[in-house]
Amino acid sequence: MAVRKPLYVDSGNLREMDTTMVGQIIDQAVYQYSLSPSVALSVVGSGGSLAAINDTRKQAGAQSTSTTSTPTEATTAEPSTVTVTYDKVSETRTAGSPTSDTGKTWPVYYNTSGQIQAMNLTDVKDTFLHPAIDLLASGSTTTQQGGTYHVSTSASIAGSTEVSGSSTPIFIDTRADTSLYTASEIPETLDQPTTVTNYYLQRITGSQITYTEPYFLDGSNNIKEFTASAFDTLLQEWMKYTAVSSGDGYSLSYNIGTSGSGNTRGSGMVDTILDGSGNYQTLFVNVDDYRAQEFPNGSATTAATYYLRIHKS
Hints:
The chain is α+β, with helices and mostly antiparallel strands. It has 3 helices and 21 strands.
């Protein structure tokens, strides 16, 4: 591992950056990535590339009828399970073509002989890019994870942007609305759900960082200061490339499921369902019209909890 101390000018003298100054450049690398993430998630109508997840709920059983007597509970259909599949999240990966390392592309530092030397790409990865990817891949959701994603139960939260642009949930937890089922309305509509919780995909907003521009060698080996725009461009190009196709264990990806590799991002998406065995109800209409039906009942229980995860590999 080759972590370098880039050089800058202080009062006319070349000095080595301290860890705080290097950390500011790492944070700026995160910000530059946040402006144009190369591993991007989108909300689609269906057929998303990330794994499908299921919302389950109970619905009433079909009514039983008789012309002679009330149908027994044993002959009345039990409540059944309705499953709604959500596959609304797709991942796209766009590496781009970063500026090649000419041998003088990156900041200079003092080597072990005290000579001024340009950082190579391995140095840049160890000093700036990989630490920035580590921040992006963490389980936190601060500005140091700018350009990455998390799940929220709110469509509008500070510090993030809802990805669909139209407050479209990526998952909806529903349950049977037991208040809508009454014996007097037999035959009741079988599926009468209520929404419990909506879950939305959010992208974290990055934060512009003030940092000290390092120095580099020009074509004539003169030491010059990077402009902020030039160095920002290098950081963004190589952050985007590293996050997609680094080949050295620092590429990013996302997955959704009850389990998986990586760090959980935001709220777990909870699928709840009523746990009752059925609320048997009857209705006498007239001497040749007897009806019975079983409605959903019981307490809410968790059937599954799905998580969005960010993974570094």
